[in-house]
Amino acid sequence: MAEEIRLLKKKFSGKGEVSGYEFNRIKSNKVAYIYSVGNHFEVLRRTVNKQYNCETYPSSKQWGRIGWTYMTEEAALKKFKKLTKKYSKK
Fold it and tell me: Quick one: which of 52, 58, 66, 83 is 20 to 30 A from 29 by CA?
């Protein structure tokens, strides 16, 4: 029987290169997430690390491909909707 995938937490404190930041999820679906981080918003495409059977937050090297930063919630929601439309199974 397959083990359930560990999901990203709704709230967490940054570690490593994002130490000192607080991440608070404000919206999610099966395709993407939006996190409020300080004075900006981060939109992520849902990514599963199959080796560890968990969702992962993009690294800085993945930014611009599966993670994006926006200064307004409105802009973040627009990207979230675009990702959802593009990657949702029809």
Answer: 52
